[in-house]
């Protein structure tokens, strides 16, 4: 099976035959987004996984997204097309080091971004995504002592808009750290009427320029509802697919990375998933996400707490 047409019809046949649902993140390639049953941000993917009655969930995203789905649905088969689809942000927070950090700060409530391993979630009080981080932080009294990990940019941003002083883990995403301030300013000069949209994982200097800061879903909603016609988008460039599809009359310009010789505004982990791998995953029901039961039993609590607060 090589051509697109075969792959599409085979994927459609297999998902029906096996009662499988395909969930895709906005950072997947356009063909995967188009064939998915549902496309969304990391919160929406967890919400969909938690309520589906499909027997198999194929999570077209990165490992922590598959893990979150598996923790929420321990009795279902959860597959990801490529198990090597990791996340540099999740990797910037090794569980053993994070556990030490938590142990060294007794009396702190632990809030972790969903971009973490199950083992980090297992020592967390409540999980957040960029969609609900502010709401969840603000659900705690102002005097609450909070550890926030692992993204320092999101943590600093939430501290700045809530007036909190959360203790931050020093992690970051390699895609969002790479956007070039100079090149975005050049684009703004070239297109003065363009609005700048930025994900809170970007560095502060980029966020200071932004007209709208938000999760992938929030940026998409803003672009769709805005009367502006041009947008410079500082997040992984996969989101442009849905932005253009929902807004054919508007122009979306991907914010460039510092290094113009690489496609560094694409997440190399997200892009490991392909249509061919999706087809093979459905066919062989591999690779499957497995989570140690002991860790899953603890990690499910802060994930469910997040879903309860966000519902
Ligand atoms: P969202 O929660 O905005 O979809 O972000 C996920 C992610 O991996 C950002 O890099
Ligand atoms: Fe992780 Fe960054 Fe890729 Fe998102 S874009 S999955 S945070 S490496």
Automatic annotation (TrEMBL):
Reaction catalysis annotation: iminosuccinate + dihydroxyacetone phosphate = quinolinate + phosphate + 2 H2O + H(+)
Q: Where in the cell is it found?
A: Cytoplasm
Where [4Fe-4S] cluster binds, per the record, is at: 87, 173, 267
> What GO biological process terms are annotated to this protein in UniProt?
'de novo' NAD+ biosynthetic process from L-aspartate
Is 4Fe-4S one of the keywords UniProt gives this record? Answer: yes
Instruction: Report the EC number(s), separated by commas if there are several.
Output: 2.5.1.72
Q: Molecular function (GO) terms listed?
A: 4 iron, 4 sulfur cluster binding; metal ion binding; quinolinate synthetase A activity
On cofactor binding, the record's note says:
Binds 1 [4Fe-4S] cluster per subunit.
Q: Which cofactor does it need?
A: [4Fe-4S] cluster
Under the cellular component aspect of Gene Ontology, which terms does the record hold?
A: cytosol
**Transmembrane residue ranges:** none
Task of the protein: Catalyzes the condensation of iminoaspartate with dihydroxyacetone phosphate to form quinolinate.
Name the PANTHER family for this protein: QUINOLINATE SYNTHASE, CHLOROPLASTIC, QUINOLINATE SYNTHETASE A
Q: Describe the family membership recorded for this protein in Swiss-Prot or TrEMBL.
A: Belongs to the quinolinate synthase family. Type 2 subfamily.
Entry protein name: Quinolinate synthase
């Amino acid at each position: 099976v090589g051509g697109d047409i075969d792959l599409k019809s085979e994927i459609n046949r297999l998902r029906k035959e096996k009662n499988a649902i395909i969930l895709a993140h906005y950072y997947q390639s356009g063909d995967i987004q188009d064939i998915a049953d549902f496309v969304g941000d990391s919160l929406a993917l967890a919400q969909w996984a938690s309520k589906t009655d499909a027997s198999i969930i194929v999570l077209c995203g990165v490992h922590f997204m598959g893990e979150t789905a598996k923790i929420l649905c321990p009795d279902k088969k959860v597959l990801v097309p490529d198990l090597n689809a990791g996340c540099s942000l999740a990797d910037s927070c090794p569980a053993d080091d994070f556990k030490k950090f938590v142990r060294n700060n007794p009396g702190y409530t632990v809030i972790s971004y969903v971009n973490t391993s199950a083992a980090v979630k297992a020592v967390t009080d409540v999980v957040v995504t960029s969609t609900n981080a502010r709401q969840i932080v603000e659900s705690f009294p102002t005097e609450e002592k909070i550890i926030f990990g692992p993204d320092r940019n999101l943590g600093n941003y939430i501290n700045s808009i809530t007036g909190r002083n959360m203790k931050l883990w020093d992690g970051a995403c390699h895609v969002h750290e790479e956007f070039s301030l100079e090149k975005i300013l050049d684009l703004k000069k070239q297109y003065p009427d363009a609005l700048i949209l930025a994900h809170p994982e970007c560095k502060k200097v980029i966020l200071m320029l932004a007209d709208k800061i938000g999760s992938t879903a929030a940026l998409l909603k803003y672009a769709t509802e805005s009367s502006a016609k041009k947008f410079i988008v500082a997040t992984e460039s996969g989101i442009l697919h849905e932005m253009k599809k929902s807004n054919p009359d508007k122009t979306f310009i991907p914010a460039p990375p510092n290094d113009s010789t690489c496609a560094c505004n694409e997440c190399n982990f997200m892009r490991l998933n392909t249509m061919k791998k999706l087809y093979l995953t459905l066919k062989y029901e591999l690779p499957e996400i497995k989570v140690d039961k002991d860790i899953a039993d603890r990690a499910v609590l802060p994930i469910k707490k997040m879903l309860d607060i966000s519902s």
